[in-house]
Amino acid sequence: MRFFTSVFVALALTSCAYDRSNLPAVEEHAVAMPDTFSAQAAMDVLLEGGNAVDAAIAAQFVLAVTLPEAGNIGGGGFMTLVMEGEPAFLDYREMAPEQATRDMYLDENGEVKPYNSLFGARAAGVPGTVAGMWAAHKRYGLLPWKRLLQPAVTLAEEGFKVPQALADNVSWYQQKLQKQELIGNFSKYFGHMKANQLFRQPELATTLKRIQTEGRAGFYEGETAQLIHTYMQENNGLINKADLTNYEAAWRKPITVEWNDYEVVTSPAPSSGGVAVAQILGMFSERADDIEQLEHNSAAYLHLMAEISKRVFSDRATYLGDPDFIDVPQAALIHPDYIESRAAEINLTAISDTDSIRPGLAESEDTTHFSIVDQWGNAVANTTTINLSFGSGVVVEGAGFLLNDEMDDFSAKPGVPNFFGAVGGEANEIQPHKRMLSSMTPTIVLHDDKVKLVTGSPGGTTIISSVAQSILSTLYFNLDAEQAVNAPRFHHQLLPKDTIRVHDGFDQQTLNKLTEMGYVLDKRRFGDVHLIKRTAAGLEAASEKSGRGRSLVIEKDQLANN
Ligand code: DON
């Protein structure tokens, strides 16, 4: 048995699992990435003949080195794919450890203990990223696994030039930890980082090399697993070796909905995002025509979307959770009759009473996203996270990577908001091996069976709004990719009552109108969207200007010369 396993591993590490012989003719390809290192790595893979999944794997591991706020091997994520026209969805979300219990973050009076689900080893769920990338490669990879890990290994070993924004984030985070008296090893690993200087991560390089040579087992077994196990034992954490060996990424059926002339392929539970985006687009279409000359980012648009979102977030809090543990009524929540009846309740000119919004079925701030389209028209939308910036703020000693604080995405106590202000109940309570509910919504939109849009975003619960608005901005209001990622976004999630979070950049008149209607406006940063849009002239790729993202398009003629 051992022999066959290692033969198989060796094959997977060196050869191609996916046959591209019957793929259609070569077209241009594009990447929209959260930093320049991942953009370069992904594009190099595409130019070498790799497909969108190969590029995604290379980028994912690079981000674990160059974007420690969110890129990771100690976290998880979701990947939405369309490969040879076939939609697929990979869930590599973290899981609660075996020893997790429902009330593990409550004190003796039943109150939520501050920071317990957000900081330190006990805040971490069992990481899913390496298993996810391994599963994606096994099913679709063209280039050898070893090749795909190489850019990350090199960047960790030889170092990378630290962008100013990363250095600023590290010092902001150190101050935050100090202020809250949260003691861990973050400064030991990242405190010496300096803008524009080389930053090397030797422990992380060694861990990545183990993953490079041993594949999935290089993380979930052997030395890395031992280091995680020991770190947990010494730091009041729960993850043990059995949790690691048993972790599996899951292929799930993506949500696919018809919307206008498009087919939207998006994230199923344990994401709440796909249901939410399908509801938003559906309710929007039901009511948009009732508003005369509906303009992009007008007060009327924001009000309509806020009313829609109230209903969406009420459903989210009640019905959504890990489908391996609870029955998620996904089909009912996106059924056209349900959408129609929910949309019909909306008053287009006045705010509805928050308390009156109930889940509608009858009884019966750092994550990172990237989008890739390869020369064969395959697409990957991948959102990955360790939850908050720099995750739980602690590094596995000896292995050199940050752990997630994803346990905060569970509902620690019914009705008590988590970091993102999201409330939940039984559906999202903590249970061993359960996946915590997510808002991550990597999404691909098809038109006439061809990839039209690849989109996604970080931003906690605001992800849902960012993704829905990126679809509406590009495909309903016809903004180009650059305009769409840079257009100000907004978000409403039922609670706090009548509060719309707004990004900088709305015109004052619009904001005044909303205030007159009774909305409270809360100025906030949103996560940066990275999207690819196909137009008659070809692919457009864009990363939001305010972030450190980078988008590249290689056109057909350039490809031919390559
Ligand atoms: O899965 C989720 O919904 C959250 N853990 C995402 C966290 C996030 O987007 C933080 N970023 N800005």
TrEMBL record:
It comes from the Bacteria. Its EC number is 2.3.2.2, 3.4.19.13. Transmembrane segments: none annotated. Pfam families: G_glu_transpept. Pathway: Sulfur metabolism; glutathione metabolism. Cleaved by autocatalysis into a large and a small subunit. GO terms for molecular function: leukotriene C4 gamma-glutamyl transferase activity. It catalyses: an N-terminal (5-L-glutamyl)-[peptide] + an alpha-amino acid = 5-L-glutamyl amino acid + an N-terminal L-alpha-aminoacyl-[peptide]; glutathione + H2O = L-cysteinylglycine + L-glutamate; an S-substituted glutathione + H2O = an S-substituted L-cysteinylglycine + L-glutamate. Keywords: Acyltransferase, Glutathione biosynthesis, Hydrolase, Transferase, Zymogen. This enzyme consists of two polypeptide chains, which are synthesized in precursor form from a single polypeptide. Belongs to the gamma-glutamyltransferase family. PANTHER family: GLUTATHIONE HYDROLASE, GLUTATHIONE HYDROLASE PROENZYME. This is Glutathione hydrolase proenzyme.
